Amino acid sequence: MDSQLRMQLLAGLKDGSIVPYLGPGVLADVVSQSSGEPMPATSDQLILAMNGGKPMAAKLMYEFPRAAMNVEFKRGRAAVTRFLDTTYGATQWSRSAVHEWLQSIDPPYVIDINRDRQLIDSYAGRPHLLIVGCARLGGSDYRFKLYVHDSANYREIAPEHADPSLPVLFKPMGAPAPKPCYIASDADYVDYLTELMGGFAVPAFVKARRRDKRYLLLGMRLSRDSERMVLADLIYGAASPAGWALIEQANDKERRFLKKLGIELIEADLQELLSETTADAAAG
User: Fold this and answer.
1) What pLDDT, in 10s, does the model give residues 92-128?
2) How far are the Cα atoms of 10, 188, 194, 205 from residue 82, in angstroms, in the given order?
3) I need a labelling partner for 207 at 20 to 30 A (CA). Which of 115, 193, 201, 284 fits?
4) Do 133 and 221 have their domain in common?
5) How many CB atoms lie within 10 A of CB 81?
């Protein structure tokens, strides 16, 4: 990776002009502290874990939301929630190298489409805002829960009571904490994406904050339809060009999609960015 670009990315992440957008690949090195098994993060990994390690029918293996919808039909929505709670809430995991690296940078706004709590843990000792995506809610136009952390505990608040100067963690696909809430099945995605396009899945202060931002996609592969649609809506109002995507051996579909969004492809892996920025910091 070009050293000038690397320093530009690092400076932008620190000052907030570049927003890290985290995908499943940032969790590739995370393992269970008890069994040593890797954390299921990608679509295929989640499907296998949800089905006891066995593949599902080919049409269900296409994408996790489709497989989760099948489980919801057969065993109810609570079965999917229990699986995600057990996976991301009850199991103790090792720390991701990417999260350790980001914690040292301390970006003021992060989007993380994973459902684990590593990003939440990174900010546990300081005040911040947490936005957790939710679907099919009753009695609310919103498709999110908003919490403020006071360095000790979370408290749910209304969007108009948020302090926009605080760091913002956005978990659009949900999280097990502070209260479990997930976007998982096809039905969840249909509801969430409809309200996302309608403006009800993003707080107003975030809509203001994200104007003219650039994004750095880390650990994202862009072949899955649901993830592509969520990304396109969450970065609405981005600067031009809209940012960068770190993808090793990107396919033609990914290249076309990135070009459409105005995102520059950086053909490198995550370890290259982490090791080189760490080396730069040591040398400085």
Assistant:
1) 999 999 999 999 999 999 999 999 999 999 999 899 9
2) 38, 16, 25, 32
3) 115
4) yes
5) 18
Pair (158, 80) in one structural domain: no
The predicted structure's pLDDT at residue 140: 86
Structure token digits, residue 206: 């975030």
Looking at the fold, whether 213 and 80 belong to one and the same domain comes out as no
pLDDT digits (tens, 9 = 90+) for 168-204: 999 999 999 999 999 999 999 999 999 999 999 999 9
- Whether residue 114 is found in the same domain as residue 141: yes
Burial of 239 (0-12, 13-18, 19+ CB in 10 A): middle
- Decide if 9 contacts 18 (C-beta within 8 A): yes
Is 54 exposed, middle or buried (CB count within 10 Å of its CB: 0-12, 13-18, 19+)?
A: exposed
In the block, which residue shows the tokens 């098994």?
Answer: 37
Instruction: Characterise 3 by phi-psi region: left (phi > 0), alpha (psi -120 to 50), beta (else).
Output: alpha
